[in-house]
Design goal:
One of its GO terms (biological process) is pantothenate biosynthetic process. The chain has 336 residues and is an alpha/beta fold. 42% of the residues lie in helices and 11% in strands. It binds 3-methyl-2-oxobutanoic acid.
Length: 336
């Protein structure tokens, strides 16, 4: 056999160890199959160590017990994965995606298709949290029918469990339409960032008695329309607390103090995954310093690659002395 043919045969043999035969079908490991896989138990937990799936019922139970509901944004598979693994009750694919994951100036730029794509990634990761997708500006305001069409796409293509939309009284018919089709809606009142131009920027809402009454009217209207909970953004703590007490569904606060029924934060903000000096809103608590840790790791990789300290022997694959000698003999023959 010619040297090049024998090399080819050996490479094929080696490759076959790593490729699956055409007949291969992936089967879940037995240890991953503890859930009841039937069409009537789609919410069953799928592994021995996984918590039970969060559902509207379990969220209601938390609310009734007075246990705060934890909500965090995620915009891709890794951020969805860690939020789910850390036990978030709700993972929100917020349209803050526009700025924090796509580098856009504000949320008005992000498209329905882009939101759906990111919802698909997060939903694949978040196996136990209740996943909500944020309807982007332009995908729901024209008519309740338009909103329902968008919401259905979020569920069918984005694989989310429910949708969020911004607005109060004026959005009540839209919320009714979507929830009547069996899609849970998380409302969003107070500061509604998609309307920042009309609101004169990111302004705290409900700072006067008239303003506070308007937030309450919005809250009662979206509750009546059938949403399962509402985000209350940038409202004085006392106002948000009083409004929460007037409702029979949960409020999820962001910049609204700790009298709400739960809290939501943007993941990149609270994990500190941004360069030093960036503005973050007053209500954000930085629980980590992901930027510094990533920077430290990437700089170390850069330095070790430049100095050839990486890869070290333990990062390489072995070859037997005989095979190496044979390879070198073949190469010498080729050079002769
Ligand atoms: O888009 C988003 O991330 C949000 C939350 C901050 C509530 O709307």
């Amino acid at each position: 056999m010619s040297p090049s043919k024998s090399i080819l045969n050996r490479s094929r043999a080696l490759l076959s160890q790593y490729t699956r035969p055409a007949s291969f079908t992936a089967r879940p490991l037995l240890s991953q199959c503890h859930g009841r896989f039937s069409s009537h138990s789609p919410m069953a937990p799928v592994g021995p160590n996984l918590r039970k799936k969060v559902t509207l019922n379990s969220l209601r139970t938390l609310y009734k017990k007075g246990e705060p509901i934890t909500v965090l944004t995620a915009h891709d598979f890794p951020s969805g994965h860690v939020a789910d693994a850390a036990g978030m009750d709700i993972v929100l694919v917020g349209d803050s995606l526009a700025m924090v994951a796509m580098g856009m100036e504000d949320t008005s730029e992000v498209l329905l298709e882009e939101m759906i794509l990111h919802c698909r990634s997060v939903s694949r990761a978040a196996k136990t949290s209740f996943v909500i997708g944020d309807l982007p500006m332009g995908s729901y305001e024209i008519a309740p029918e338009q909103a329902l069409e968008s919401a259905i796409r979020f569920v069918k293509e984005g694989r989310v469990h429910g949708v969020k939309l911004e607005g109060g009284i004026e959005m009540a018919p839209t919320i009714k339409k979507i929830t009547s089709a069996g899609i849970p809606v998380l409302a969003h009142i107070g500061l509604t960032p998609q309307r920042q131009n009309a609101l004169g920027g990111f302004r705290v809402q409900g700072k006067t008695s008239a303003g506070a009454l308007k937030v309450l009217e919005d809250a009662l209207a979206v509750q009546e329309a059938g949403c399962f909970a509402m985000v209350v953004e940038a409202v004085p703590q006392e106002v948000a607390t009083l409004i929460t007490k007037k409702l029979r569904i949960p409020t999820i606060g962001i910049g609204a103090g700790n009298g709400c029924s739960g809290q939501v934060l943007v993941q990149v903000d609270m994990t500190g995954n941004f360069p030093p000096g960036r503005f973050i809103p007053k209500f954000v608590k930085k629980y980590g310093d992901v930027w510094s840790e990533s920077m430290r790791a990437i700089e170390a990789y850069r330095d070790e690659t430049k100095s050839r300290a990486y890869p070290a022997p333990e990062h390489t694959y072995p070859i037997s002395k005989d095979e190496l000698a044979e390879f070198e003999r073949i190469l010498d023959g080729k050079n002769a």
